[in-house]
Amino acid sequence: MTDDLQTARPDDGGFIAPVAMEADPTELFAGDTGTLDPAARVVLVDLLRRRFLSAERTPDRWRSLLEHQGVIESRLHDLFVTLVVDRDRGIAYKRQVRVGEVDIPILLRDEPYTRIETVLLVQLRTLHQQESRAGEVAARVDAEELEQWALSYLDPAETNVAARQREVRGAVGRLVTEGFLVEETPGRFRITALIEVALPVDRLAELAEWLRAGHVAAAEPALDTRDDEEDDE
């Protein structure tokens, strides 16, 4: 009996050979009609939720991105969004498609950085650039330096220093969350290569001049990296 079942074929009245479990469509929830691999879906959502995907911070997702890059790019193109993958730096990010002659709905509306965050980003990019030119693998900075940088650009008439210090700590926290800084020891941060993508050299020069002109006290946020073009040092 056992041998007959193993050798039976549909055309001679036996059982239909079972389909391997791996060939079954993956349904992650009731009514799921998605076709992407679960790992690719996670990466796609991550790309839509965050400004950047970093190989350093999420190595598993970075590997999934490279494995499924083609289909993820296709899904983003369906939304009029392009994907930029910088394999050398280990960074991926999205960019809104903007075509003058085509009426494209805008999906990406990232929150601009605040004035304090902009000051810190410019200073971090400048330090990173200096250390890179000096042959250093990575640049590091202390929390005290970050605070001094930010406070030095404030209006001298500013009297609520405690409130500004809280603002600086909040800004540093956001830069850590977004991956520009990695806290290696309490109060000691390493600047990541992500800063190169967010602030290419031409944009750095523009913002540095903006800061020198004293505009940091303005109420409007200064930096929005949604459509910055990629550039190298």
Short account of what is shown:
This protein is an alpha+beta fold. The protein contains nine helices and six strands.
Description:
The chain is α+β, with helices and mostly antiparallel strands and about 230 residues long. Helix content is about 45%, strand content about 10%. It has helices at about 1-5, 40-50, 60-65, 70-80, 115-135, 145-150, 160-175, 195-200, 200-210, and strands spanning about 50-55, 80-85, 90-95, 140, 180-185, 190. Strands 1-3-2 form a three-stranded antiparallel β-sheet. It has a three-stranded antiparallel β-sheet with strand order 4-6-5. It is globular. It starts with a helix and ends in a 21-residue tail after the last helix.
Poorly predicted regions are: 1-12, 19-24, 217-233
Summed up, the helix count is 9
**Large-scale geometry:** globular
Q: How many E-type strands? A: 6
Provide the β-strand percentage band. Answer: 5-15%
Helical amount among residues, as a percent range? 40-55%
CA-based gyration radius: 25 Å
Mean pLDDT: 80
Distance between the termini: 73 Å
Taking the sheet with the most strands, its summary is: 3 strands, antiparallel
Strand order of the largest sheet: 1-3-2
N-to-C SSE series?
Answer: HHEHHEEHEHHEEHH
Structural class: alpha+beta
